[in-house]
Design a protein that fits this description.
The structure is a single chain. It contains 6 helices and 8 strands, in the order ββααααβββαβαββ. The chain is an alpha+beta fold. It has an 8-stranded mixed sheet with strand order 1-2-3-4-5-6-8-7. β7 and β8 form a beta hairpin. α1 crosses α3.
Length: 172
């Protein structure tokens, strides 16, 4: 495992992740938290897996979250909009619905921060959180992220627009 905590570990994407990514990326309940508006094919996700990994070239990286006790893949941690000049990146987390509300988010956020701050030498991370996603805003606040902005009417949610919290954390 790449980074290992008490309950969780992070690792690189593998070809075996295709089916679980297909499930998560096509879960329409999750689309409201990101920018997805259409399903992903297995072909598209297979190409994504094959071409992922180099954050310096792709300006993003997705790491898979593994439950240490079962060795089952239970989520993803993303760094996106990687900016090596200004030493920052956006951060996104996903835990499978069976693993939410179990206190794992704090450990997961700590692991991806360790990677970002210790190995990529970033000076700050930021998260864009739809205002309706109370669980995420609570998690990021608990982990030291400060709300530094409000993006009004940022996400179209059918017949209305949702505001988005902009939260940042500086390196330790």
């Amino acid at each position: 495992m790449f980074l290992k905590g008490k309950n969780l570990s992070l690792r690189a994407l593998e070809p075996e992740d295709l089916d679980i990514l297909y499930k998560w990326e096509n879960d329409t309940e999750l689309w409201k938290y990101g920018n997805s508006l259409s399903p992903y094919s297995k072909f598209t996700l297979k190409e994504y897996i094959e071409n992922s990994g180099d954050i310096f070239q792709m300006r993003q990286v997705r790491l898979m979250v593994v439950d240490n006790s079962t060795e089952q893949t239970i989520g993803t941690a993303d760094l996106y909009d990687y900016d090596p000049i200004n030493e920052r990146a956006g951060i996104g987390l996903l835990l499978d619905s069976n693993y939410r509300n179990k206190g794992l988010g704090v450990e997961l956020l700590g692991l991806i921060e360790e990677y970002a701050f210790r190995f990529l030498f970033l000076k700050q991370l930021y998260a864009q959180i739809p205002i309706m996603n109370k669980a995420s805003s609570k998690l990021f606040s608990k982990c030291g992220y400060k709300q530094t902005g409000l993006l009004e009417n940022w996400l179209k949610m059918g017949d209305y627009y949702e505001d988005v919290l902009f939260m940042q954390k500086k390196a330790y």
